[in-house]
Write a structure and sequence with these properties.
Number of helices: 11
Pathway: Carbohydrate degradation; glycolysis; D-glyceraldehyde 3-phosphate and glycerone phosphate from D-glucose: step 3/4
Protein name: ATP-dependent 6-phosphofructokinase
Order of helices and strands: EHEHEHEHEHEHEHEHEHEEHH
Structural class: alpha/beta
Keywords: Allosteric enzyme, ATP-binding, Cytoplasm, Glycolysis, Kinase, Magnesium, Metal-binding, Nucleotide-binding, Transferase
Radius of gyration: 22 Å
Number of strands: 11
Catalytic activity: beta-D-fructose 6-phosphate + ATP = beta-D-fructose 1,6-bisphosphate + ADP + H(+)
GO molecular function: 6-phosphofructokinase activity; AMP binding; ATP binding; fructose-6-phosphate binding; identical protein binding; metal ion binding; monosaccharide binding
Shape: elongated
Bound molecules: 6-O-phosphono-beta-D-fructofuranose
Distance between the termini: 57 Å
Strand content: 15-25%
C-alpha cells in the first residue's frame, strides 16, 4: 500500500474527526501517503481531494462533526459514478480506501471494492450503534451523554409542573440510544422498536406508577418505535387516558449528533482509525474494523451489512425494575 484515501459518509457522528486523525497519523507513521476526500462518495466522484499529513489533523480530536464533511451521494450509486471515482483514485495513485460511516456507507464500499478490486476498510461511525459485529460505533457514547443531559433538564421542569414528557430520541430502526439513555436518565417508560408491547401496556403502566405516587413522568421514545411513530397521536392518547397529567412532547433531533466527542468515543475512534490502516497493511479488504469485548475485530462487510444486532434483554429487565 503506497497511498490511501479516507472519507466520511452518511450521518455525521462525534468522533469522526478523531478517527480521520488516527488514520492519517498511522499512515504517516507507516510511511504511507494519505488523501482526504471531501463530502463522502460524492467527493470521490468529483475528485474533491486534499493531501493530508500528520500536521493537517492537529486540534481536531476534540471537535464534533467531520472536517471532511459528509454527504449521501446519488451519483456514486450509478455505474458511471463508480467508474469516475475509480479513475480519480487511479490518477492519484491511490491504492486503498478507508470509509467512516454506517450501514449505507459500507454497502457502497462493498459494491465498489468488489467491482474494481480495490481494498476498502470500513470504520463504524454513527450515533445509532446499529452496526452488527461491533459492540460500539463511534459517536454513540457522546450522543447518549447528550441525551441524558437533555433529559435531566426536562425532568427538572417536568417535576415542577407535574407533567408527563414524551421525549423522542434518534436511532433510526434501533433502540440502543433510547434504552440506554432511558435507563441512564431514570425514565419511567422506554419505547423501542425491538420490543413492541403495545399502547395498552404503556397506559396501564403509567396509570400504575401514577397511583404509586409519581407526579411526573418521562417516557423515552425511540424514533423507530411502532407506537411512537406518530408521537403527537401517542401524546393525545395518553392525555385522554391520564387527565391528571399535562402531557408534553419534546423531539431532541439533531442536537444528538453534535458536540465535542466524549473521551470514550475519542479513544474508540483512535483505536479503530489505527486498526483500519493496520488491516490494509495486513492485506485485508472488504472488512469493517470493530471492537468486541474490548478487542479489535475484522468483520466481513457481507456479515455486517443489513444485519440486526441482538437486543440487550438483560437491560430491558433492569429498565423495568428500576423504573417502578
Ligand atoms: O443515522 C444517524 C441519524 O441521526 C439517525 O438517528 C436519524 O434517523 C438520521 O440519521 C437522520 O438523518 P438526517 O440527518 O438526514 O435527517
Amino acid at each position: 500500500i503506497n497511498k490511501i484515501a479516507v472519507l466520511t459518509s452518511g450521518g455525521d457522528a462525534p468522533g469522526m474527526n478523531a478517527a480521520i486523525r488516527a488514520v492519517v497519523r498511522n499512515a504517516a507513521y507507516q510511511n504511507i501517503g494519505c488523501v482526504g476526500v471531501y463530502r463522502g462518495y460524492q467527493g470521490l466522484v468529483e475528485k474533491d481531494f486534499i493531501e493530508l499529513d500528520a500536521r493537517s489533523v492537529k486540534n481536531i480530536i476534540n471537535r464534533g462533526g467531520t472536517f471532511l464533511k459528509s454527504a449521501r451521494s446519488k451519483d456514486f450509486r450509478t455505474k458511471e459514478g463508480q467508474e469516475k471515482a475509480y479513475q480519480n483514485l487511479k490518477n492519484e495513485n491511490i491504492d486503498a480506501l478507508i470509509v467512516i460511516g454506517g450501514d449505507g456507507t459500507f454497502t457502497g464500499a462493498s459494491v465498489f471494492s468488489k467491482a474494481f478490486d480495490i481494498p476498502v476498510i470500513g470504520i463504524p461511525g454513527t450515533i445509532d450503534n446499529d452496526i452488527k459485529g461491533t459492540d460500539f460505533t463511534i459517536g454513540y457514547d457522546t450522543a447518549l451523554n447528550t441525551v441524558v443531559e437533555a433529559i435531566d433538564k426536562i425532568r427538572d421542569t417536568a417535576s415542577s409542573h407535574d407533567r408527563l414528557f414524551l421525549i423522542e430520541v434518534m436511532g433510526r430502526d434501533a433502540g440502543d440510544i433510547a434504552l440506554n439513555s432511558g435507563v441512564g436518565a431514570g425514565a419511567e417508560e422506554i419505547l423501542i422498536p425491538e420490543e413492541d408491547r403495545g399502547i395498552e401496556h404503556l397506559l396501564e403502566s403509567l396509570k400504575k406508577s401514577r397511583k404509586s405516587g409519581k407526579t411526573s413522568s418521562i417516557v423515552v421514545v425511540a424514533e423507530g418505535d411502532q407506537i411512537g411513530q406518530n408521537i403527537n397521536k401517542l401524546s393525545e392518547d395518553i392525555q385522554d387516558n391520564l387527565p391528571e397529567y399535562e402531557v408534553k412532547v419534546t423531539v431532541l433531533g439533531h442536537i444528538q449528533r453534535g458536540g465535542s466527542p466524549s473521551c470514550y468515543d475519542r479513544v474508540l475512534a483512535s483505536r479503530l482509525g489505527v486498526s483500519a490502516v493496520d488491516a490494509l497493511i495486513e492485506g485485508e479488504s472488504n472488512v469493517m474494523v470493530g471492537t468486541r469485548q474490548k478487542k479489535i475485530v475484522y468483520v466481513d462487510f457481507d456479515k455486517t451489512i443489513g444485519g440486526k444486532k441482538k437486543l440487550d434483554k438483560e437491560l430491558i429487565r433492569v429498565a423495568d425494575i428500576v423504573s417502578t
